[in-house]
Amino acid sequence: MRPLVSIAIAAVVLLAINSVFVVREGQTGILLQFGRIVHSDYQPGLHFKLPLVQEALRFDSRLQTLDAAAEAYLTSEKKDVNVDFVVKWRIADPSRFYTAVAGDQDRAQQRLAPTIKDGMRTAINSRTLKEVVSSARSDLTDTLVKNANLKTQNLGIEVVDVRIKRVDLPEASSILRSVYERMRSERKQVADALRAEGSEAAERIRADADRQVQIIKADAYREAQTYRGAGDAEAAAVYASVYGKDPEFYAFYRSLEAYRESFQAPNGVLVLDPDSEFLQYLQNSK
């Protein structure tokens, strides 16, 4: 008897477990009965179903990202551009999503990508290169979102946003070379202007330094002349004092200085009269 009770309890527990299902936060769900959808768009929480007859499927209702590879497009000016874009989308209708792609998000993105690329091609073909890379880009993406939502209603998804990450010119494009040349020319103009400003500043600094040098030299020369004049005056005063005390010794001392100055050159020749007054101290050494 007891084994039968245990089996009955286990069956009841199993039926109870199969009678409920949980939809977590960030999810949405549908309920199938024999493969047919009987209810959809379940919100997060605890829900009930018929055990063994009905099946609950849950899908991620958060924003999904489609990051497609860069594609080559042609502008209205017949200029090639490589556009790299990203798409943000989410499940809007779980029933249609399950019917269209069997709830497979990868399959949904595979069907979404061509739609976005076709819309991107049409939008870029009607715009110039300047409009594609300038402020008109926001209008382009708004148009893409609107047209994409019209074409993906049968998939049960909603395109929230389309963002252009990069717009590149082909490496072999003449436009790219002209852009590089213009950028190089602009940078060269800026560099030349900076060099001119630097040269001007250097000349100004150099001129100021030369002026300061001249001022310092002039001040030093004036101060040296002042000290030299004071020294000469003091020397003259000393000479005068000595001359006043002993004129004969002063005359002798001055003659010795004259001899020293005259005979400094090692090979110098001095022609004088033997009776010259200049040689009186040499002649009368006694």
Short description:
This protein is α+β, with helices and mostly antiparallel strands. Helix content is 55%, strand content 21%. The model has no long low-confidence stretch (mean pLDDT 81).
Question: Could you explain the architecture of this structure?
Answer:
With 286 residues, this protein is an alpha+beta fold. It has four domains: 2-60, no CATH class; 64-170, 2-Layer Sandwich (Tetrahydropterin Synthase, Chain A), CATH 3.30.479; 192-245; 247-286, no CATH class. Helices cover 55% and strands 21% of the residues. The protein contains eight helices and nine strands. Strands 6, 7, 8 and 9 form a four-stranded antiparallel β-sheet that branches. A hairpin with a 2-residue loop joins strand 2 and strand 3. Helix 6 (174-245) packs antiparallel against helix 7. The longest helix has 72 residues, at 174-245.
Secondary structure blueprint with pairings:
Layout: H1 2-17, E1 20-23, E2 27-33, E3 36-42, E4 45-48, E5 54-60, E6 64-67, E7 71-74, E8 80-91, H2 94-101, H3 105-125, H4 129-133, H5 137-151, E9 157-168, H6 174-245, H7 247-262, H8 280-283
Antiparallel strand pairs: 1-4, 2-3, 2-5, 6-8, 7-8, 8-9
Find the CATH superfamily of the largest domain. Band 7 domain
Under the CATH scheme, which architecture of the largest domain would be assigned? 2-Layer Sandwich
| Helix fraction by DSSP (H/I, runs of at least 4) | 40-55%
The largest sheet is: 4 strands, antiparallel
Number of helices: 8
**Which outline best applies?**
rod-shaped
Helix/strand order: HEEEEEEEEHHHHEHHH
Low-confidence stretches: none
Strand content: 15-25%
Measured between the Cα atoms of the first and last residue, the distance is 167 Å
Number of strands: 9
CATH class of the largest domain: Alpha Beta
Kindly state the mean pLDDT as a whole number?
A: 81
Rg, nearest Å:
53 Å
Total of domains: 4
CATH topology of the largest domain: Tetrahydropterin Synthase, Chain A
Structural class: alpha+beta
Q: From the structure provided, what is the oligomeric state, counting identical versus distinct chains?
A: single chain
